[in-house]
Please model this.
Amino acid sequence: MELLKKVTAAAHTLGAIIIGLMFISIVAQVIVRLLGGSMIWVEELSGYGAVWSTYLGIAYVLRQGRHVRVDLVTRQMSPRAQEIMRLVGDIACVIFSIILAWKAIHLVGVSLQVQRLTPLLGLHVYWLQIVLPVGFILFGLEAVADSALAARTLKAIRE
Model:
């Protein structure tokens, strides 16, 4: 559990660094344009950075309990019913993560075989896609950890 927490935090930190680098490169692009130059590759790189920062951050956001939730109904429920809904949501996240991680691994494998390159930067697409299975695996593991916590809380409420 502690290892997962550290890996999730490291992924979050890397995502934050990527966002910082995106900001710096976009500001540099604006300055270069004002001076009459061009850095057209920044747009492509920023798009990939947005994808990477998103998938590196989803597990951390789940750990922090900050994912968007529609709690209009659950706020009206008893604490036990709220924990049951939390557990059901976590199980759905685990199933979702397993399916998407599996599909993402397949996608990366296909991209590896095809050796497709990005339009401007000429990077192998599989290097950009590798974050998809990593993000979904971390997200799924965090959902498993959260469901274990919800189950323990349910048990304590019952007793």
Q: What stands out?
A: The longest helix spans residues 79-114. Residues 2-158 form one domain. The chain has a mean pLDDT of 90. The radius of gyration is 20 Å.
